[in-house]
Design brief:
The protein is of the alpha+beta class and 460 residues long. It has helices at residues 3-26, 38-54, 124-141, 163-169, 217-220, 227-236, 259-267, 272-279, 292-298, 338-351, 377-390, 404-413, 438-456, and strands spanning 58-63, 70-75, 83-89, 109-111, 114-116, 147-153, 178-181, 193-198, 200-209, 215-216, 303-309, 319-320, 323-332, 358-363, 370-371, 395-399, 417-419, 435-437. The two termini are 28 Å apart. It comes from Lysinibacillus louembei.
Length: 460
């Protein structure tokens, strides 16, 4: 029997037990954002540690950070073979609004071959697949084809504030040949994808202040600057009518798409008309010369996320608002640097600041973009493993969103990152009725097991 056939037989035989164990993990309400769940966070970390120990993983430890603990473990007996560092997170999002859940969020329930529970898809279900894949390889082969290390954190849903320092302090312990993360999704149902890039993120808040207080428009209108008018002048200066960003230097370091990447995106056959129908919009919008996938995966953005100021109650209040504000975020692509982009935004705002007001710019958290080359052997090997199990060509995609810790890993550990996810965009992660399609749980276990064999054959 091939290793895939052995894995298949093992997973079929032990599926009921595996799902029962996953349910134990999902029942722990490990909500990192809420202080009342601090004990549950510790319980989830301990559960992971004990499970790793049961799999012959060595040097397992629940290690303290400034926030919630990190779980670490390793098995390093595949002499001369590469080392994979597996990452995931055991924390989950809050469950509000609770009344929209069809079944309680921490009482796992299977309906229509979907596992409903908070964390089922993001990310406990996918973390659990790492563990069961290791269990199956030991059971069917008596060993592992590569060396493995594990790092599971409890703060991803709150921005991973403690993990960069932990990683910096433990660079030698975390040394590996690549990082595998299962916290992304398939391109579509039945269509696997390897995500090889993510956009970064930065943003600012703009506060415009005029007079000492709101002024009567009859007494002062036409003679004193209106804070909202001043703000809208600044906001209108950011983009032209096609959505092209007008901030000087904004595009200077953008890494262009290769011809091979653009062709790969075209080959996906993305249906822009269907998207318009789904979103109920009369037209899509974006930079000229780029497809929707290119715009959302590989081009930077500048978006106004919120505007506030003045009177918005019923009727009319004839005033000149003294204050107004807006929140701006930018999705960034390789090789843009968040600090540089914020400096460019500040310079642009200063250049376009109207007279008669004070403008204050406050910065938000920042995350760098990440990219492992499209043709990297580790990326292509992941694609082969998907294709063996799903029996269709693998899509190679970039993510339009951001996972800041991925860029931190790339920068601190200087390792290629392979994003091998098995979720679907329709699975309501971060929302009520989160669920995980169990056919992807089943197939993903086999993909991951095969990938270890693929990596073992590479000369890294």
């Amino acid at each position: 029997m091939s290793h895939l056939e052995k894995l298949d037989a093992y997973f079929i035989e032990h599926r009921a037990r595996h799902l029962s164990e996953l349910n134990e993990f999902l029942r722990i309400p490990s909500i990192s954002a809420l202080s009342e769940h601090k004990g549950d966070m510790r319980d989830a970390a301990n559960w992971l540690a004990e499970h790793l120990k049961s799999l012959k993983i060595e040097n397992v430890a629940v290690e303290e950070t400034a926030g919630h603990p990190v779980v670490y473990g390793e098995w390093l007996h595949a002499e001369g073979k590469p080392t994979i560092l597996f990452y995931g997170h055991y924390d989950v999002q809050p469950v509000d609004p609770l009344n929209l859940w069809e079944t309680p969020p921490f009482e796992p329930t299977i309906r229509d071959n979907k596992l409903f529970a908070r964390g089922s898809s993001d990310d406990k279900g996918q973390v659990f697949m790492h563990l069961k894949m290791i269990e199956a390889l030991f059971a069917t082969e008596g060993t592992l084809p590569v060396n493995v290390k594990f790092i599971y954190e409890g703060e991803e849903e709150i921005g991973s504030p403690s993990l960069p320092k932990y990683t910096e302090d433990n660079k030698e312990k975390l040394a590996a040949d690549l990082i595998v993360i299962s916290d992304t999704g398939l391109y579509a149902k039945g269509k696997p994808a390897v995500c090889y890039g993510l956009r970064g993120l930065t943003g600012v808040q703009i506060d415009v202040r005029g007079a000492k207080g709101d002024l009567h428009s009859g007494l002062y209108g036409g003679g004193v600057q209106n804070a909202i008018h001043a703000l809208t002048e600044i906001l209108a200066s950011f983009r032209d009518e096609h959505g092209t960003i007008q901030v000087d230097g904004f595009y200077d370091k953008v890494l262009p798409l290769s011809d091979e990447e653009r062709q790969a995106y075209r080959d996906l056959g993305f249906d822009e008309e269907a998207l318009k129908d789904e979103l109920k919009v009369p037209a899509l919008f974006g930079e000229a010369g780029y497809s929707y996938l290119e715009q959302t995966w590989a081009r930077p953005t500048l978006e106004i996320n919120g505007v506030f100021g003045g009177f918005s109650g019923e009727g009319i209040k004839t005033v000149l608002p003294a204050e107004a504000g807006a929140k701006i975020t930018c999705r960034l692509v390789p090789n843009q640097d968040p600090e540089e982009i914020v400096a460019l935004l500040k310079a642009h705002i200063e250049k376009h600041k109207p007279t008669g007001v004070e403008v204050i710019v406050s910065e938000f958290d920042k995350g760098k973009p990440y990219l492992t080359p499209f043709d990297h052997p580790l990326i292509q090997a992941a694609g082969r493993s998907y294709e063996k199990v799903y029996k269709v060509p693998t899509a190679y995609t970039r993510g339009g969103g951001s996972i800041p810790i991925v860029a931190a890993f790339d920068e601190i550990l200087n390792l290629p990152v392979v994003l091998m996810g098995f979720g679907l965009s329709e699975e309501n992660f971060h929302a009520p009725n989160e669920h995980f399609h169990l056919e992807n749980f089943d197939q993903g276990l086999r993909v991951l097991g095969d990938y270890l064999h693929e990596v073992a054959e590479l000369k890294l």
